[in-house]
Please model this.
Amino acid sequence: MGKLPYIIVLIGIVLSSSACIGDYEESTPENTVRTYYEGLNERNPQKVLGTLSDEVIENAGGRQVILTSLEDTMEDLEEDELIFEVEEISSETTGLQATVEAHIKLYPRGSDKVSRIPYTFSLVYENERWKIRDIE
Model:
């Protein structure tokens, strides 16, 4: 028996390990906020929905109600050609809750009219992911 089976097993272990690391790195409070804005910029309601906590979804009337609302929001963003950029971001985590402070740059595509808006996000860790519970 040659080295090939051992190499295949080693590659499998490395790929499994890196997938776990990738998921861990992806699921941070800061990355959840970044994903939220990526979803808005991509006009992707499903991506934005994936960042929201179960509590937010339930309080809004369920997934379909939120998706319909997000689709309307996406149409408005597209019409105004608005782009969001996360300029500064920091977080503080306590147990299964986190607070993220983010300064967002908002502007119409191709324009020099830029607004800078500070937001505070409250997040909760649920279903092995950080999810947005509130935005102030």
The first helix runs from residue 4 to 26. The beta strands are 82-94, 97-108, 115-126, 129-135.
